[in-house]
Amino acid sequence: MSDYEENESKFMRKAKENPFVPVGMAGFFAIVAWRLMKMKNRGDTKMSVHLIHMRVGAQGFVVGAITIGVLYSMYKDYIVKPREEQKALKDK
């Protein structure tokens, strides 16, 4: 198996385990692309300020995606799984 195939399968495995990782990555790249396109119309704003705003927006999206992913994981582990276990015990 080549390195490319190994990396591709690793990414797909990680995406299935944590579906919010690709969402965070896509949001990060979308925000960066949007801010780079907006850069030519920045007016009197300094380049450093524009880049800081781009970084903060992209990081905020990634942190939000991670937080939602953690909350979703906790919901599955602590609410859904115990309900399924209780239902399985009642059915026995």
From TrEMBL:
GO BP terms, alphabetized: mitochondrial respirasome assembly
GO CC terms, sorted: mitochondrial membrane
**What InterPro entries does the entry give?**
Hypoxia_induced_domain (IPR007667), RCF1 (IPR050355)
| Signal sequence interval, chain numbering | none
- Is Ligase set as a keyword in this record? no
Gene3D superfamilies referenced in this protein's UniProt entry, alphabetically: 6.10.140.1320
Q: Name one Pfam family in it.
A: HIG_1_N
Annotated TM spans: 20-37, 58-75
Keyword entries, A-Z = Membrane, Mitochondrion, Transmembrane, Transmembrane helix
- Lineage top rank: taxon: Eukaryota
The entry's localization annotation reads:
Mitochondrion membrane
Q: Which residues form the HIG1 domain?
A: 1-84
Official protein name in the record: HIG1 domain-containing protein
